[in-house]
Amino acid sequence: MKFLKALFLLENDFEDLEFFYPYYRLKEEGIEVVVASSDRETKIGKHGYTITPDLIYSEVIPEEYAALVIPGGKSPERVRVNEEAVEIVRKFADKVIAAICHGPQLLISAGLVEGRKLTSWIGIRDDVKAAGGIYEDREVVIDGKIITSRMPDDLPAFCREILKKLGIRK
Amino acid sequence: MKFLKALFLLENDFEDLEFFYPYYRLKEEGIEVVVASSDRETKIGKHGYTITPDLIYSEVIPEEYAALVIPGGKSPERVRVNEEAVEIVRKFADKVIAAICHGPQLLISAGLVEGRKLTSWIGIRDDVKAAGGIYEDREVVIDGKIITSRMPDDLPAFCREILKKLGIRK
To answer: 3-state class of B8 per DSSP?
Structure first.
């Protein structure tokens, strides 16, 4: 198996399943999963699950990673106000980026939405459109290497497409 | 792909990730996932996630399923006091049974532990031993078609082995 690394950008109030399902799923495939945040404090999800970041944003070397995963909840709003984090997202523009629920907020901040097909949590649908995105209400939308989904129930389709895009599953 | 069904036995206070990770994971493979419980009320996990059962125990036809999955938390203690549910577990004795965390409590009640290698949440380790089980402290233990794990962080290994046993992954 080829050695791959995936990066998660995470702050407090992340949607627990939207973090842990992809995190465990990529681990199941032998992919190294790395969590970056604004500081080293343990982060807590909306439902109380916790994870301690491996890195702070300034330590991330985007070139090391094959994919970026952006879980939803209130985390993306906290990530997007950090310019270092937004800069990381921009550096993944030619790699696999997977954003679910409120995750596309970070794609808007990074200027990656205009003219692209994507989906998101319905509550930010109008922001996606206002940023020039072509919104589709489907469990998973793929545009080039950008994969987006709407909510936890979309996780099976979301991860299936991430792993296809990484060449790990058919 | 062959058509497979998997059954989950679930009551209130289930460990949310231990239910949802396998539930979504099997869905990702196109397996039909069915949740059975003592009544049709929506069940709530320890962390607040919810799921509405598809069936009550008396409606389960074990012959329809390729695998039984028993998530942990306080759910297994509630399942095991229901004789119909314990009888379902016994009927899976020759099929794939996957139990995580407190899930093996149900295997004890069904009389499936004696002389078998298995693991569980450390807090019920002595019950597994008292029931004649050979306890191993590893992320996943396989004995015939019985697959057991200890806790949420074991989920990648747990599901990898379930899918291997079902012939879906290498």
So the answer is: strand
